[in-house]
Amino acid sequence: MNTVGFTTSVPLEILIAAQKTPIDLNNIFITDSAQKDLLKKAEIDGFPRNICSWVKGIYAVVLQAGVSEVIAVTQGDCSNTQALLETLTFKGIRTIPFFYPYDRDKELLAFSLNKLMHHYGVTHEECLVAKTALDRIRKKVHTIDALTWKGNTVSGFENHFYQVSTSDMNQDCHVFERDLDRFIASAEKRIPFREDIRLGYIGVPPIFSDLYPFIETLEARVVFNETQRQFSMPYPTTSLLDQYLRYTYPYDIFARIDDIQGEVHKRELDGLIHYVQSFCFRQIEDTLFKKILKIPILTVEGDQPAPLDSRNRMKIEVFVEMLRSRKNRSDSRQDGRNN
User: Fold this and answer.
1) What pTM was computed for the model?
2) 100 and 181 co-located in one domain
């Protein structure tokens, strides 16, 4: 009864202050060994084929895992969440709506935070105590991120895994923190990667199981994971309100673009891979990314959990080779000017 599932990142401090065990339902779905059975269960129960697999997976996970309470983010994430909330309510699951105001309205976000605090019977002071403990853990994840792009001793998947895990701290803050300590100690002793192509990954976390290792077979590496990094709350703040105002994922695309542009320059990225989920409204954003961001972007689309198919493998191979040729031409011109 102490577990609380949620459909995307929510203010974790409130659940920790309430002594609840947080469960990011996305993480449970994507790591389940029977993902296809979960999707089939949702479709048998009436979910259409052309609905995002993440939504169907969340629905089936809630029923399979016996989660009795779910926080559904009705604004700031998936356009299908309201219907998912209604379906879970019909199934007898207690659902709590939470929203991030699209226009980043400070008063509306404060109202949303206060409402969730009231539901769980916790105070601002208790949440700030939880924030202090969580920020200590998040700083260790930020260290892993720095080891990825600056120290070059962390793989793209490891960077993805530890950052995406901050959404629920793998359901146990203490165990997760010990895992981080062990990983950092090991990663700091590694021989650095020597790939010649540095990539950024933007968009929701991938549904593909082998994207990052495949990229590394091409002598390339992802050194920036946009949304996963946002889950780790990368900006220093002193209050919950400021923290979740600066969190870019739930709001308009333009704040995300500003964040991405800064990281492109800081991390010296050669190109971006934009992952889009089939049947997701966020596919429309791809056009804006390509019009505004001044860097080569490859769009990769996924539907169900699976390894990369041959078409996407070929697209990524061609993209990496294009970036390599482009970089070599640029280096040659620079050498010519220096001579």
Assistant:
1) 0.94
2) no
